[in-house]
Amino acid sequence: MTDPGTRRSWWKEAVVYQIYPRSFNDSDGDGVGDIPGIIEKLDYLADLGVDVVWLTPVYESPDNDNGYDIADYRSIDERYGTMADWEELLAGLHERDIRLVMDLVVNHTSSEHEWFRRSRESKDSEYRDFYIWREGRRVDGEGGPRGPEGEAPPNDWESFFGGPAWSYDERTGEWYLHLFDVKQPDLNWENPAVREEIFEMMEWWLAKGIDGFRMDVINIISKPEGLPDGEDPNAVVHGADQYVNGPRVHEFLGEMYDRVFAGRDAMTVGEMVDLSVEEAPDYVGEDGDGMSMAFSFDHLRLDFGGNGRWSRGEWSLVELREVLSDWQDGLADDGWNSLHLNNHDQPRAVSRFGDDGEYRRESAKLLGTLTHTLRGTPYVYQGEELGMTNYPFESLDEVRDVDTLQNVATAKLDGRIETEEEALDLVRYRSRDNARTPMQWSAAENAGFTAGEPWIGVNPNYPRINAERARVDGDSVWHYYCDLIDLRSEHDVLVYGAYDLVLADHEEVWAYTRTLGDERALVVLNFADGRSRFEPPSSLDGAPSKLLLCNYEATASAVEPVELRPYEARVYRLTA
Ligand code: ISL
Q1: Which residue's CA is minimally distant from atom 15 of ligand 1?
Q2: Which H helix or E strand runs over 522?
Q3: Listed residues 133, 162, 186: the one ending a domain
Q4: Do 227 and 202 fall into the same domain?
Q5: What is the pLDDT of residue 491?
């Protein structure tokens, strides 16, 4: 069969582990994780059994957005080490059959990148058109924040981090666009010289031996001509309807593919803002842009409130199942999913979709079972394999993240947040810093992360939740993740098998089968913190079955009616 959905690829069979270096392991006591620190933990990664490491940015950066503001694409920031350290890391990973995917952040650079420094010098600079400069709009009186008297920003777009997406630059009297922070000016992809620089830089990294790229906000690089005001009041951020999947995005990505990826067997994962399942094949399908897969976020928006990300709503299993099933079905024959509930921008999944109290272990294992048995490539974010939880923020002084700080400030200005307690409540639930606290290695001081003062607080639960302890405890989340990773590598059906929903209406139990030829697996997940009844449907009657994995002491091996325990997860093999 040459059905593109079942065509084999190394990256379809892989499990990816995301490292956020700042918070992974500090080897020199400056409180910030570094590359030699990662090298110390290579055997840990090999023991876990992951196949790919995705390293978030380690390039030279003023660190306003923790490295997503790059000042030099071809360098390693000295905080993280040297290029020689990075080369040793790559070799160490490859020796262990682990591939390396680097982060590609090319929607914007840091304002300290040489291109921007030269761009802002004068309107005649050869780098002027590397960025998006416009004149302000004339208005009567005050024009609003960040501009001179009588001038408003060129359009009404807002930044993802709160406030206007434009800043006025006095030197030349024009405004530049920054969809993220003021210090992250957007590159002008319309300019062929920009594209050329980026493609050359990508080739340079590939020639160094890396195995692919994770592409930051890659579907917003093309802005429409005239930069019209936002129209959709429900856009993820005001104005996003104008540039999400912008007019030339596929042309630019097609060019990137032809220039950089054609003829190589690299893995690419595009981080996509507000991508719908209908649009996904244009990027990842057979006739798409040649990207391996995309990160979509429909399922990570279910708990947004009426005011978007910085307001709180409720999610339900019914919705989670519906959204993820839509993605499973939508890319069944064309394209490939990435499976993720965690990353460095999201609160910890066990606190969000599970129970980080009484059933922390069980629910962390249940969520891992989901991401390792749906169809797609699983992503494990550092600490997820330990069941790490959100951080109990007690003061805004503990927050480091520019996104959190600015959005809280904007919400206060708009009157959406009134008291400090309200702000803290939201921060504890939503802040990206929940995922950015140091990796918990042991019960030693600072969780064994650093001998110095950590750049951000260590979660006080580290004496209980840490890698050293998890590795000697046979019942830990860590051991269960090892089992999940092994299971997936032993059973092709879990990688390539077709997804079919079982019991579409159950409010607490999500059950599905995966089918590949004669091979079949059944996954049963109880998302409730109490018992739930599971009655296998008659379509599964009579098939001999065997329990492959369960997050509790198993009672019986065959598929049968059962009272599932809180957050119980089961994976069965069925034979025809
Ligand atoms: O953080 C978010 C959701 O929790 C998003 O708004 C996020 O900013 C968006 O998904 C883009 O994220 C990526 O680009 C940002 C960077 O701050 C994030 O860390 C990165 O993953 C700008 O480069």
Answers
A1: 68
A2: strand 519-526
A3: 186
A4: yes
A5: 97
Per residue in 422-449, pLDDT (tens digit) is 999 999 999 999 999 999 999 999 999 9
Residue 492 in domain: no
**Residue 40 contacts by C-beta under 8 Å, 6 or more apart in sequence?**
25, 27
SS3 173: coil
Task: Note the pLDDT of residue 1.
Answer: 33
Whether residue 196 sits in one domain with residue 88? yes
The per-residue pLDDT for 4 is 47
Q: Which residues of the chain have pLDDT under 70?
A: 1-6, 143-145, 576
- The interaxial angle of helices 420-430 and 402-413, nearest 10 deg, is 140
In this prediction, residue 146 carries a pLDDT of 77
Q: Please tell me if the CB atom of residue 106 comes closer than 6 angstroms to any atom of ligand 1.
A: no
Ligand 1: which atom is nearest the Cα of residue 237? 6
Is any ligand 1 atom within 6 A of the Cβ of residue 161?
Answer: no
Q: How high is the pLDDT of residue 5? A: 55
Whether residues 312 and 444 share a domain: the answer is yes
CATH number at residue 447: 3.20.20.80
pLDDT value of residue 544: 86
* Confidence (pLDDT) at 6: 67
- 180 and 262 assigned to the same domain: no
- pLDDT digit string, tens, across residues 142-154: 766 678 889 999 9
Question: Ligand 1 pocket, 180 CB below 6 A?
Answer: yes
Distance CA 369, CA 555 (A): 19
Cα(412) to ligand 1 centroid in Å equals 21
| Ligand 1 proximity of 534 Cβ (cutoff 6 Å) | no
The residue assigned the tokens 């490295």 is: 67
Residue 509, domain extent: 498-574
Residue 440 and residue 407 in one domain: no
Specify if 323 maps to a domain.
yes
- Answer whether residue 132 is part of any domain: yes
**Residue 222: partners with Cβ closer than 8 Å, 6 or more residues away:** 189, 190, 243, 246, 247, 248, 249, 251, 252
**C-alpha to C-alpha distance for 139 and 148, rounded to whole angstroms:** 10
Question: What is the predicted pLDDT for the residue at 144?
Answer: 67
Give residue for tokens 């699983």: 378
Strand order in the sheet with 174-177: 133-134, 174-177, 166-169
Answer yes or no: is 489 within a domain: no
Please report the pLDDT score of residue 507 as a whole number: 97
**What is the reported pLDDT for 555?**
76
Question: Which are the catalytic amino acids?
Answer: 216, 271
Residue 311 CA to ligand 1 centre (angstroms): 17
Question: Rounded to an integer, what distance in angstroms lies between the CA atom of residue 124 and that of residue 121?
Answer: 8
User: How many domains does the chain divide into?
Assistant: 4
What would the pLDDT profile of 489-499 be if each residue is shown by its tens digit?
Answer: 999 999 999 99
